[in-house]
Design goal:
heterodimer; A: 255 residues; mainly alpha; 0% strand; B: 183 residues; two-stranded antiparallel sheet
Chain lengths: 255, 183
C-alpha cells in the first residue's frame, strides 16, 4: 500500500491522551522497519559474497525495498496522527554485522534468526495488533505490513532450507548457538516487558488496542504461540535442535 | 498457558537473571532491583520524585513499554558499541531481528577521525548530526552508500566535500557496506 492510498484517520472516539499514547508507537515501528531494511540489505550483500545462487539475493533486495516502504508507511501514519518523526539508530545493526564476518555464516545466521524467526514472531505480533485495531488508518497500515511479513518469514525459512545442506559442521554448530541466543533475545525484547507489566498489575486502556497497541496478555500469547507452534518445529525441520535451542536459551554458550 | 506460567518458565530457564543484567529493568519486582548507580532504571528507588529529568525518562520508559517496546537507560559503560554511553532509547520489537547486538559490539572509535554522524551520541548532541544521521539511514536503507566526507583529503581539490549518498548498484561484498566500515 502506498502512503497516498491510506484512508483518513478517525480519531473522534478517542481522547487526546489516548491518541498521543498510542501513536507514539509509530515512530518506533518506523525505526524497526528501517532496521529490517538494513538487515535485508546486508543479507543481499552477504549472499552475493558467499556465492549463494540467485534468485535468493534478488529476493532479499526485494524484501529490503518492502521494509523501506514499511518505514515510510509507519512514518507517514505517525505524522498524520500527530506523532514525532522517527529517530533512526544504525548502531545495533552495525554491531550485529561486525560479529558475523564470514559471508556464508553471516548469510545463514541473518537468514534464520533475523528473517525466519524474527519475521515469524513479527507476523504473529502484527496480526494480533491488527485483530484488535479499529481505527481505520491504523488498521489499513497494519494490514499492509502483515501481508509482507508473511512473505518475508516464508523467504527466511525457504532460504535457510536451501542453504543448510551447504553449511559445514562448524557453521551448523555456530548457527545452532545463534538460534538459541536469538530466542532468548526475542523473548527479552518481545515478551518480558509485557510480563513485567502484568506482574505489576498495570492497567491497560482498551482504547489503546483499538489504536493498534497490543494488550500485554495479547502480546505474551502472540509471542509464545509463534515460538512454540511455528519457530521451534520449523527449526527442527531444518535439521537444527529446536527444542534444545529453546530450553537452553539462557545457558552460557561455549565457543 | 497463562502469563503467570510463562513467567515461571522464564525464571526456570534463567531468563529473569538476564533481564536484570545490562538492560532496561523498570518492571522487575522491587525487592529484586538494587538501587544505586549500577541500576540506571529511572523509575525505581524514588528517582522520578527526586529528579525531574528522571521523571521525564521514567515517563518515556513507561510509554515505551506500554507500546511493546524495550526501554534502555543505557548508562552502563560496556553497552555501547564504542565502549561509551548510549543515550536512553526505546526499541520496538518487531521484524528483522531484535537480537541485542550490543553484546557483540565492535570497537568504534569516536573523535574527528570517524565522521559518522550516527555514532558516539552525536545525533543527540547536535541537530545537524541528527539530520545527517537520518539521511545516512535513509541512504543505506535504499541500498546506497553514505559518505559524511569530512576528512580533509576526500575532495578532488584536497579540501572537504559535502556529505552525499551514492546510490546502490552492485551491492558488493559485505565488508564494503557502510555497516561494516568499522570492523
Amino acid at each position: 500500500m502506498r502512503t497516498t492510498e491510506l484512508p483518513e484517520p478517525d480519531l473522534a472516539p478517542y481522547s487526546e491522551a489516548q491518541v498521543r499514547f498510542a501513536v507514539s508507537a509509530w515512530p518506533m515501528r518506523a525505526a524497526e522497519e528501517l532496521r529490517s531494511a538494513m538487515i535485508f540489505r546486508a543479507l543481499r550483500s552477504a549472499a552475493h559474497a558467499a556465492g549463494v545462487a540467485e534468485p535468493w539475493a534478488s529476493r532479499f533486495g526485494d524484501a529490503c525495498r518492502d521494509e523501506v516502504r514499511h518505514t515510510r508507511l509507519c512514518a507517514e501514519v505517525g505524522r498524520r496522527l500527530g506523532a514525532p518523526p522517527p529517530r533512526y539508530d544504525a548502531r545495533p545493526v552495525r554491531a550485529r554485522l561486525a560479529a558475523l564476518r564470514e559471508p556464508r555464516l553471516r548469510t545463514a545466521v541473518l537468514l534464520v534468526v533475523e528473517v525466519a524467526m524474527g519475521e515469524t514472531i513479527s507476523t504473529s505480533l502484527f496480526r494480533a495488533g491488527r485483530r484488535s485495531a479499529v481505527e481505520p488508518l491504523t488498521r489499513a497500515a497494519l494490514t499492509s505490513i502483515v501481508a509482507d511479513e508473511v512473505r518475508h518469514q516464508q523467504l527466511g525459512w525457504r532460504g535457510m532450507a536451501a542453504l543448510w545442506p551447504k553449511l559445514s559442521d562448524r557453521e551448523r554448530a555456530a548457527v545452532q548457538r545463534e538460534v538459541s541466543t536469538g530466542l532468548a533475545a526475542f523473548e527479552q525484547h518481545n515478551a518480558v516487558p509485557a510480563l513485567r507489566r502484568l506482574e505489576r498489575g498495570d492497567p491497560f486502556d482498551p482504547a489503546h488496542a483499538s489504536l493498534g497497541v497490543l494488550a500485554p496478555e495479547a502480546r505474551v500469547e502472540a509471542f509464545y504461540t509463534a515460538v512454540e507452534r511455528f519457530v521451534v518445529p520449523r527449526l527442527s525441520k531444518l535439521g537444527l535442535d529446536g527444542p534444545g535451542a529453546w530450553s537452553g536459551r539462557y545457558r552460557p554458550v561455549a565457543d | 498457558m497463562n502469563w503467570q506460567g510463562r513467567l515461571r518458565d522464564l525464571v526456570l530457564a534463567g531468563g529473569a537473571v538476564a533481564a536484570t543484567a545490562c538492560s532496561s529493568s523498570s518492571s522487575a519486582p522491587a525487592d529484586n532491583v538494587p538501587c544505586g548507580n549500577a541500576n540506571p532504571d529511572p523509575c525505581i528507588c524514588g528517582r522520578p520524585d527526586a529528579d525531574a529529568q528522571q521523571a521525564a525518562l521514567c515517563k518515556e520508559e513507561t510509554s515505551c513499554q506500554a507500546a511493546g517496546g524495550v526501554f534502555d537507560p543505557s548508562t552502563c559503560s560496556n553497552c555501547a558499541p564504542d565502549g561509551g554511553v548510549v543515550p536512553p532509547h526505546c526499541t520496538m520489537p518487531g521484524d528483522g531481528g531484535t537480537v541485542d547486538a550490543t553484546e557483540a559490539a565492535p570497537s568504534i572509535p569516536c573523535g574527528n577521525a570517524n565522521p559518522d554522524p550516527c555514532i558516539c551520541g552525536r545525533p543527540d548532541a547536535s541537530a545537524s548530526a541528527a539530520a545527517l544521521c537520518a539521511e545516512e539511514m535513509t541512504c543505506q536503507a535504499s541500498g546506497g552508500l553514505f559518505d559524511p566526507d569530512t576528512c580533509g583529503n576526500c575532495g578532488a581539490d584536497g579540501g572537504e566535500t559535502l556529505p552525499h549518498c551514492t546510490p546502490g548498484g552492485d551491492p558488493g561484498p559485505p565488508d564494503a557496506s557502510r555497516a561494516d566500515a568499522h570492523d
